[in-house]
Design brief:
The protein has 90 residues and is mainly α. It is built from 6 helices and 2 strands. A two-stranded antiparallel ribbon has the order 1-2.
């Protein structure tokens, strides 16, 4: 459990100025916020941000967070539940 707490703190301090604003108004500032948003995300919100034309979640993790490895693994997710599982394992 301590590892998760340390992850939250480090993740918050990193990238506090690069946010992802979701269609429903939720502001994602770090991976912990993304994890929480995905956990309770309505499918329509997910598909608005991740579809055949774009994937805002992957792009944000790759560019704003700078975690290319995580972004690559996120590309396989087909819905919010799968994406949550990938981010949660991080």
């Amino acid at each position: 459990m301590l590892e998760k707490e340390v992850f939250k703190i480090v993740d918050f301090l990193k990238n506090t100025n690069k946010v992802l604003v979701l269609r429903n108004g939720v502001v994602v500032r770090n991976l912990y916020d993304l994890r929480l948003a995905l956990k309770y995300m309505d499918p329509s919100i997910y598909y608005n941000h991740a579809n055949s034309k774009r994937n805002d979640f992957v792009n944000w993790v790759e560019i704003a967070v700078g975690d290319i490895s995580l972004a690559k693994s996120m590309r396989s997710a087909r819905n919010a539940k799968e994406l949550f599982s990938i981010v949660d394992k991080r």
